[in-house]
User: Fold this.
Amino acid sequence: MSLVEYLDNKFYPDFQKNWDDHLFREKVLAVIRPEHDLLDMGAGAGIIDCMNFRGLVRSATGIDLDERVTENPFLDKGFIGDVTQTPFDDGSFDIIICDNVMEHIEKPEAFLDEVARLLKPGGIFLGKTPNKWHYMPLIAANTPLWFHKFYNKLRGRNEEDTFPTHYRLNTPADVRRLASGANLETVDVALYEGRPEYLRIFFVLYLFGIFYERLVNKVGFMRRFAILLVTSLKKPG
Assistant:
């Protein structure tokens, strides 16, 4: 057993790999229905099993600039395109999901305007993204893309799955403000801190991450510095 595995077993025995995606999946499962049409904005190649809702909804559509989206096994249909300018008709979807994409959005106003246009009245948007004020996004915002690719490669992630980040829709305040500007209601914005996945490659780094996670979850005002931001928006109707 490695030192990292020892810390896993000691401090996070109930955590799964990609715990954040499992958490987000539960949020999505709570709102989808068999009669719903779902759009995954930034669906990518379909590498996270938790984002497979095909068969649980009437239709699962995805869009991404990554050409591999057309072969995404989680979708009934995948489209290559920009999430701020999609080819779909107004009011096409009951549910729109966005998993680890909001940090890559360069024009958040245009993105949320498109979300509002695509949702049916009463439709729901669910997004998961890093919180801008956590140490990992702060580091990412001040380091070049080549470093992100190098570090993610150490974590076992392909370079082609690492993209430029902007963090313009990544705080509770930004979400509420920009959602209001797009005439979307903020149903919920929640912050979570869990197992420090980014630091699990080295024992010493992992120890720091564990200390930080315990601090965030025990000291009230530190909650604003948690890693995960999950938001729910609703189109009035």
Remarks:
- The chain has a mean pLDDT of 92.
- The first helix runs from residue 3 to 11.
- Strands lie at 37-41, 59-64, 77-80, 93-99, 119-130, 185-192, 228-234.
- Residues 213 and 219 are 10 Å apart (CA to CA).
